[in-house]
């Protein structure tokens, strides 16, 4: 491969990536414009909030339960003989609220919510139900996309908040039952370094995760083609892209907000 061919290949790939970014930005813009039709999306948003948020609470709390236990045991192992054991409470609270509850719950819901949305909308696309909605003068963005995005942005923080409380409570119980840490020591560690910023940071991150997962799921579902195989591919790609988006957003918030707060 000569230099001219290499430049051509790189240029074509770059142009394709930039075009995809532009298409996704246009998709987000169309979704935002759908907010003008409030009578269409408000009833759907309430229903989607129950499906995407309330029904996902057991998953988030189940993950946080065992995460809190493992963190307490890991902290005790790491601190033995060097750091006072009340720091177990500090580590559990900081790690659960600021990082693990938002990220682990987001990744789990990317599989449940993102794949579900992509499969649902993908099936509607390949069976021409979306074309039928457009024929009936329904805007797919107001009727299908916007309610799911709003439900994800609102309900992901609710699920994560429940996971935060469950994880810290699980770490507290594990510290009392499995470690040589009293309840007062654990609570001392939590209260000593607790800052309301920890909770705000985790909840804002989770809201951005919810928007990303639902937007990607809707986008991949609406692009589905080719019957059942296309629907399966859309669901798979939605989960993969959502997981990547969550990790990128996690790093973004750490650099933009957490680093600035520390400074």
Structural overview:
The chain is an all-alpha fold. It is about 85% helix and about 0% strand. It has helices spanning about 5-35, 40-50, 55-80, 85-125, 130-135, 140-180, 185-195, 195-220, 225-260. Helix 3 runs antiparallel to helix 4 and helix 6 crosses helix 8 (about 195-220).
Q: How many helical elements?
A: 9
* Rg calculated over all Cα atoms: 22 Å
What coarse outline follows from CA principal-axis ratios?
Answer: globular
Share of β-strand residues: under 5%
* Strand element count: 0
Unreliably modeled segments = none
Quaternary:
single chain
| Distance from first to last alpha carbon | 49 Å
H/E element sequence: HHHHHHHHH
What does the secondary structure layout of this molecule look like, with pairings?
Layout: H1 3-33, H2 38-52, H3 57-79, H4 87-126, H5 129-135, H6 140-178, H7 183-193, H8 196-222, H9 227-262
Helix pairs in contact: 1-6, 2-6, 3-4, 3-6, 4-6, 4-7, 4-8, 4-9, 6-8, 8-9
């Amino acid at each position: 491969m000569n230099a001219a061919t290499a430049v051509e290949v790189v240029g074509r790939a770059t142009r394709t990536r930039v075009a995809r970014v532009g298409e996704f930005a246009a998709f987000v813009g169309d979704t935002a414009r759908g907010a003008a039709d409030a009578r269409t999306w408000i009833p759907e948003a309430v229903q989607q909030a129950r499906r995407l948020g309330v029904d996902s609470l057991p998953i988030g709390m189940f993950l946080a339960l065992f995460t809190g236990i493992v963190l307490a045991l890991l902290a005790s192992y790491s601190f033995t003989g060097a750091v006072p054991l009340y720091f177990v409470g500090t580590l559990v609270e900081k790690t659960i609220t600021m990082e693990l509850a938002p990220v682990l719950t987001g990744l789990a819901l990317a599989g449940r919510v993102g794949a579900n949305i992509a499969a649902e909308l993908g099936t509607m696309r390949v069976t021409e139900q979306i074309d039928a909605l457009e024929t009936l003068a329904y805007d797919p963005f107001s009727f299908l996309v916007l309610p799911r995005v709003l439900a994800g942005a609102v309900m992901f923080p609710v699920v994560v908040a429940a996971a935060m409380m469950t994880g810290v409570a699980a770490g507290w119980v594990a510290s009392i039952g499995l470690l040589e840490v009293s309840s007062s020591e654990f609570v001392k560690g939590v209260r000593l370094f607790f800052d309301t910023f920890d909770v705000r940071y985790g909840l804002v991150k989770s809201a951005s995760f919810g928007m990303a997962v639902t937007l990607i799921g809707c986008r991949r579902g609406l692009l589905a083609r080719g019957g059942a195989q296309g629907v399966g591919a859309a669901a798979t790609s939605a989960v993969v892209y959502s997981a990547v988006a969550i990790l990128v957003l996690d790093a973004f918030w750490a650099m933009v907000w957490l680093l600035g707060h520390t400074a």
